[in-house]
Structures are given as structure tokens and as C-alpha cells.
């Protein structure tokens, strides 16, 4: 027992380029799950509410639908705002690690550079939220009867606005389901902007804290 060698701790702070690439993909896919679930939940609520609206009240159905879609966007913004804050904190930690490395100082190996802030990450996460829409829109274009139910269930927030234009007499939508891919812009813009705002607010908060600490140090020296 005494001769056992201590286990080596993994060094996450210095990945190769390919390791970093795949870790960034994993991090972004992980961050898209909760926003996607929020859109999914609001889509199911949208379907429930529209089923309760009597026929002939299209305006009420559209208003309720828009409220549900905007509700999903609100949760999306909140989640990506917090992700921006978290990633900016990791960016500052990474800056310290890199500064120490340049000075020849060994830092801890638990820092994960894939979690650092980058301006494009929020938009990329938003695109990943829309991936199910893109896949289902293509399937619905070619196999509407088979794919429409899955589209309505898993990406109703994107197909519902298309359905508001009406349906054909023989079945199917008047508007091609491929047009629903335009609604992928919603999570892309909401995620990207909220992510940037979160990082910016955190940056300003850190700067204000540092400035306040500096004033306190200067005041202490003057006494």
C-alpha cells in the first residue's frame, strides 16, 4: 500500500488544438440543451393553448402563440446571459494562467479553456438550439405526413408561425416547411446578444470592483 504511486491529476488547462476544438463543441452542445428544453416546453404550452381556442379565433391563437414563443426566447436570454457571465469569469482565469505560464510559473491544471468567453460562442450555441428545426424542416419538406408530428412536438415554436398561414385542402401547409428555418434566427440572435451582454456586465462589474479596491488601497497608504 505504501509503495503505490499517487494518481496523476489530469491537466485540463493545456489541451492540444484538436482537444480544444472537440471540448469547445462539447461545451457548446451542453449549453444548448437547457435553452432548447425551454423552447420545447413553451411549444407544448403553445399547442395546448391553441387546442383550447375555438375555431374562427385565429387572432387569439396567434397572440397566444407569440406570447409562448417570446416566453421561450426570454428563458433562452436568461440562460445565455448567465453563460456569458460564467465564460467571462473563466476567461479571466485563463488570462492569469497564461500570464503565469509566460513567467515560468506552474498553475493548477483544473482550468478548462473551452469554457472561456469568446464573442462567437453565444451565436453558435443559438445555432445549435436551432439544429432540430433545420433537420425537421428538411424532413417535413420531403416527407410531411411522416415528419410533421415530430416537427410539431419537438420544434413547435418554429412550425406554428408557418401553420398560421393555413393548410391545403388535401393536407399539408400552404407555406413550405423549409421557411420555418428562418425562425432559427430567433435563438441565434437571442443567444448571441444575451451572451455578449452577460460578459459585458460581468466585465464592468469586475472593473468597478478593481477600481474600488484600488481606491481603498490608496486611501490606506495616505493614512
Short description:
The protein is mainly α.
Q: Can you put this structure into words, describing what you see?
A:
The protein has 223 residues and is mainly alpha-helical. The protein is built from six helices and no strands. The protein has helices at 17-52, 58-102, 121-129, 131-142, 144-163, 185-222. Helix 1 crosses helix 3 and helix 4 crosses helix 5. The protein is elongated, with a radius of gyration of 24 Å. The mean pLDDT is 89.
Largest β sheet strand count, sense and barrel closure: none
* Number of DSSP strand runs: 0
- Amount of helix: over 70%
Overall shape: it is elongated
Structural class: mainly alpha
Radius of gyration from CA coordinates: 24 Å
State which percent range the strand residues make up.
under 5%
Could you list the spans in which at least 5 consecutive residues all have pLDDT below 50? Answer: none
Q: Give the H and E element order.
A: HHHHHH
The tally of helices reads 6
What is the CA–CA distance across the termini? 58 Å
Integer average pLDDT: 89
